[in-house]
Write a structure and sequence with these properties.
Oligomer: single chain
CATH topology of the largest domain: OB fold (Dihydrolipoamide Acetyltransferase, E2P)
CATH superfamily of the largest domain: Nucleic acid-binding proteins
Radius of gyration: 28 Å
Number of helices: 12
Shape: elongated
Number of domains: 2
Strand order of the largest sheet: 3-2-1-4-7
Largest sheet: 5 strands, antiparallel
CATH architecture of the largest domain: Beta Barrel
Low-confidence stretches: 196-210, 215-231
Length: 396
Amino acid sequence: MAIPSESNISGRNQLIISALCRRLRLEPNKFQGHLLQKDIKSLCSNILTSSGSWATLESNSEVTKWMEFIENLPADSESCLRALNELNGHLASKSVLVGEGLSPSEADIIVFSALYSSVKGLSDSDKRSLPHLFRWIDYIQNKEDFGKSFEQILVEKDKFEPPYDFTQASKIIEKVEGDSNAKTVQGSKDANAVEKVSASSKIADVGKVKGDSQSTTEKKKLPEKVADEKDQDISVSLLKIQVGFIRKAWKHPSADSLLVEEIDIGDAKLRQVVSGLAKYCSPDELMNCRVVLITNVKPGKLRDVMSEGLVLCASNDNHTVVEPLIAPEGSKIGECVSFTGHEGKPEEVLNPKKKQLEKITPHLFTDEKGVATFKGIPFMTSAGPCSSSIPKASIK
């Protein structure tokens, strides 16, 4: 194993000092004398002690383990890539290295900073071979404010799409219904074929006489009809949005991008929901979360697993960070989210053919403080507004 040079150690330590001090709001110049220190734990403990964080962090064996991982990271590229592969495997089911939440820990900041120089120059093929590692890297660099200490590492991203495709579901239902009635419809077509030809001829003759006047009338009426549809205001009150508590979550058995959750909304039976969150958080991170979900969507199977709702999620502009909306502590399980000025009764079941949800979601977003809103009106519960850690995010 190659021994890291002094310049490599200095560069690595400079990034760790810069990132940790910015995270802990400390002055980095106080620690410049540690630039050549090889012992990562001693370096980090000095910084964390200055902030008062080390006493808590030192008791966590996971944090110490990751410090040792960085300290023993090989300098030669082949051995280093093998170590990165191990880290990639560890991150397959986790969003962060230490902790149960969606926020990076100090250990994540330390490992990210120490790995930065090693991973930023990897080839595209090496990056593709480490998908979980680079998903984590992209999450950290977009979640944490590092100032100008780090250049952005470009990561190929999958576009986030809501897992419940109402339009496609409608087409499938229509196809099933159409197949069941196919024989009857075909019989009717055969019986009426001659009549249709005759009727078409008569319509054509009438059209020659009245075509000009009808065409003029249609041209006058069409713009007015289109304008009515375009200006129609779809109220968010059509949606039944409830506070739910995730009791259990697991990976979808046949879809890598999907998770399945059992959600308590105050009914006798837990509601099963399929969500496209597997790339953004682990099942453990969703457990015991107080989320917000639409419960009057039409139930349907997603990759052979029944889904009876839609968990609302916030997403940043490039869909690298996606997380469920969170209802405030103290909100009641099953209570309906309200919107001031929109007190209408929700639909029993949304009709996919009317595309009601598709007309409402473009108006759902978080404000600059992360509060979830519809056209600027907060998602309100008995304990306050629902929110996300992602400001100015779209909500789907």
